[in-house]
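Person: Please work through this fold.
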Amino acid sequence: MSEQQMNTPELRPEADANEVRKVRIEKLRELSENGKNPFEITSFDRTATAAEVNGDYDRLEGQSVRVAGRLVSKRIMGKASFGHILDSDGKLQGYFSRDDMGTEEYQAFKKWDVGDIIGIEGEVFKTKTGEISVHVKRAELLAKSLLPLPEKYHGLKDTELRYRQRYVDLIANPEVKDVFLKRSRIISTIREVLDKKGFVEVETPILNTLAGGANARPFITHHNTLDIDMYMRIATELHLKRCIVGGFDKVYEIGRQFRNEGMDPKHNPEFTTIELYQAYSDYKDMMDITEELYSTACMRVRGTLDIEYQGQPLCFKTPWARLSMVEAVKKYTGLDFDTQSLDELIAQANAKGLELAKNTSWGTALYEVFDRFVEEKLVGPIFIYDYPVEVSPLAKRKPSDPRLTERFEFFVCASEGGNAFSELNDPIDQRSRFEQQMLAKANGDEEAQPYDEDFCNALEYGMPPTGGVGIGIDRMVMVLTDSASIRDVLLFPTMRPIK
């Protein structure tokens, strides 16, 4: 039986949460009647955190400190008691005694519940067992918890409930908080690397009259004053490239994207990306920047470039492996898009399980074979480059082979981590690509990109040769924190409403 169970009978597993709440509301009423309503307290002057006390004992021994946090355990022993408080940095033990606190204050403490927010003041010392503690002289109830925390040793393990009640998950499972601290460090590392390179962070609209920059289904909303439908952005690309047209040489944006698509361990309707664009560069330069961002972030949060993700060894030392899509397809399927006829390729692909029509283009056939048979085999990290023009409406054609574009995606554990181009800056070609996208949309492709006339207009003013890359922050955090699901790295993932 846990300390929490022994000293807080209301937290028995069979106890009803509503009954617990009634008991605690009654305690709150009594406190209010006695002029001690904790919710009327506006502040508590802390002088130390749990981590500071535990980490700097030699300096703080015998010194008075003021620490505040959530009471997460309590063990009553007659005239003296022990309890642990949890703050944002860690956990610290308090020793509470009637002789030091006085009878009235000590009796008040005994009525407090696990989950309450309290402040303590006292001298730092070590118990007989060697645990760093605070010898409490004064204690103050700062906020009353009306609902019980999960039982200490079993915690909050129901995965669905953990995502819905992340606030409880963070209290019950300290390792969860560590994931989000690492996420913050990863994002700050990305900013640090790009800022040192002279990139400028900008902000672009989330609400747009067109949903462009990617092939995806958008969320639609309505602007009442303008009386028009608007779309939540699916990518930041087209606005960032407008910045390049306007004279910025290096820009980036870290922000939320919204796509009205399915949900699974790798997809959430809203997610975070970093997109960056650099004038006078190409997709090979973007490979170098991608490697640097990943390797620097990996070292920052893992301390090594050799890590494991869900049991799979990964090495983020540079340079990463690089294969063209044609080379990757030949390596993993035996189909040679350099030498075999298109009819032969379609026949062999269909024999493997695809259903390609006889009039399928060379580029579409190449991509479909890669998507179906190759991607799942890519442990990586690896760059797959030179994508067909049919699936790359915003990328520049490869001069040596106009069927292909200067585009790459990189893969880690069979999952795409980012996408990059030598950006298409030919306005005539761009208009033609948009027209092809509109034909695809007319034929039922709900993810085809709309014709963005203003973006084409911007290109007609002239955009320098530009390299751009977009990286999924959530998937990056998943890999670098060894998290199995995107929901594990989003504080508040999208959930189906409870009926």
Q: What stands out?
A: Residues 406 and 436 are 19 Å apart (CA to CA). Confidence is low (pLDDT under 50) at residues 1-14. The longest strand covers residues 64-77. The chain is about 35% helix and 25% strand.
